[in-house]
């Protein structure tokens, strides 16, 4: 373990994420609201399909 290398072992080997993680609180809330609305719309569509 030498102190010459400032990079962490995970720098080049971290798994890639499909979606970038929002950095600010506002971005996180915006993303959560968007996901929630999409889920609610899907539930509403499923309920409408069951009634017909």
Describe it:
The chain has one helix spanning 25-51. The protein has 52 residues and is mainly α. It has a domain at 23-52. The termini are far apart.
Helix proportion range = 40-55%
Cα-atom Rg, whole angstroms?
Answer: 21 Å
Distance N terminus to C terminus? Answer: 67 Å
* Overall pLDDT level: 78
Taking the sheet with the most strands, its summary is: none
Instruction: Pick out the low-confidence regions.
Output: none
Number of E strands: 0
SSE string: H
Please give the oligomerization state of what you see. Answer: single chain
Shape descriptor: elongated
Q: How would you classify the helix and strand content by structural class?
A: mainly alpha
Specify the number of helices: 1
Put the structure in a nutshell.
By secondary structure, this protein is mostly helical. It has a domain at 23-52. The protein has one helix and no strands.
Note the topology.
Elements (H helix, E strand, L loop, with lengths): L24 H27 L1
Structural descriptors:
52 residues, 52% helix, mainly alpha, single chain
């Amino acid at each position: 373990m030498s102190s010459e290398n400032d990079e962490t072992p995970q720098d080049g080997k971290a798994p890639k994420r499909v979606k970038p993680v929002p950095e600010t609180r506002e971005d996180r809330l915006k993303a959560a609201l968007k996901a929630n609305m999409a889920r609610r719309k899907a539930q509403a569509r499923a309920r409408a399909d069951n009634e017909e």
